[in-house]
Structure formats: structure tokens, C-alpha cells
Design a protein that fits this description.
Layout: H1 17-23, E1 28-31, H2 37-45, E2 49-54, H3 57-66, E3 71-75, H4 89-100, E4 105-108, H5 114-122, E5 127-129, H6 144-153
């Protein structure tokens, strides 16, 4: 984004996460678990773009046509957290793109290395999302044993 905003030190401790997003005027919010049209409307009324994490065609249609989301995070079953995907990410991407039409779709699940990005972009994704991969960073604060386990699971391709 072209502008930087100061955010609270621990917004995840708020009982009203949406209120925190509105108060600090975030540019984009992602609904990963739960959601409905009222939530999307509340965020969009505050000029916040809304993306929804989906793993099925039905979820994608609900997010876009039922709730009015601005775009999708299309998640495959390779994902490590907030698992919505039920099929491999690249297989689901085509379905999500068809449902989304002109709206952006970012691919999530199995994105651990730069080599994972180009095929997703070539297949039509507007971008990729690497989430669980960041548990491997020192800055994540994740327990060292957790990081070792994830490192074994996400070794670079040969």
C-alpha cells in the first residue's frame, strides 16, 4: 500500500477486531473463519476492502455473491492453518477464478518458496499468500520445536 499506518501493539487481544480495523483504517481485511454479509458491509462502509478465505466453490459464491466481498483467498488443502481448502490449491484456483470473474483471487496453500509463486501467477492468480511459512522466522515468536517441525514439512523442492 502507498501509505503506512500505525497499528495497535496487540490488536488480536481486542474483543472487537472489526472495530480495531475500522479505528486504525486498515486498507484490507481478510475474513478467514466465519463471516456474513453484515460483517462485509460493516468493513466496506469504512472503506476497507474485504477478501474472504475460501476452499470450495460454494464458499466462493457465498463470499462474493452473497456477502459482497471484493476478492478471494483461494486455499488449497496444502495449507497449514485456518484450513478451508479441500482440494489441491492449483486445482481449486481455476474454480475460484471462474466464480470471481473480474475480482482478484490470491492463491493460498503450499506457497513456501519463490518457485511456488510463478506457476500460480501464470495460472491467473493476482498474487499468493504465504502464511504458515512465516512460522519459520525468528520474528514469529513460535516455539523452536514448532519451527523445526514446519521446516521438515516445507523443505525446498529438489
Amino acid at each position: 500500500m502507498s501509505r503506512t499506518r500505525r497499528t495497535p501493539a496487540r490488536p488480536h487481544r481486542s474483543s472487537d477486531r472489526v472495530g480495531v480495523c475500522i479505528k486504525y483504517r486498515v486498507d484490507v481485511a481478510v475474513i478467514a473463519i466465519g463471516g456474513d454479509a453484515a460483517l462485509v458491509e460493516r468493513l466496506r462502509a469504512a472503506d476497507i476492502a474485504v477478501f474472504v478465505l475460501v476452499g470450495t466453490e460454494s464458499q466462493a459464491r457465498t463470499a462474493l455473491d452473497g456477502w459482497g466481498a471484493d476478492g478471494l483467498f483461494a486455499q488449497g488443502d496444502e495449507a497449514g492453518g485456518h484450513l478451508a481448502g479441500q482440494t489441491p490449491a492449483r486445482s481449486f484456483l481455476a474454480t475460484a477464478l471462474a466464480v470471481a470473474g473480474h475480482r482478484p483471487v490470491l492463491l493460498a496453500g503450499g506457497i513456501a518458496h519463490s518457485a511456488d509463486t510463478r506457476p500460480a501467477m501464470d495460472a491467473g492468480a493476482a498474487g499468493v499468500v504465504a502464511g504458515t511459512r512465516f512460522l519459520l522466522t525468528h520474528e514469529s515468536g513460535a516455539h523452536p520445536m514448532l519451527r523445526v517441525g514446519w521446516a521438515r514439512r516445507s523443505a525446498p523442492p529438489p
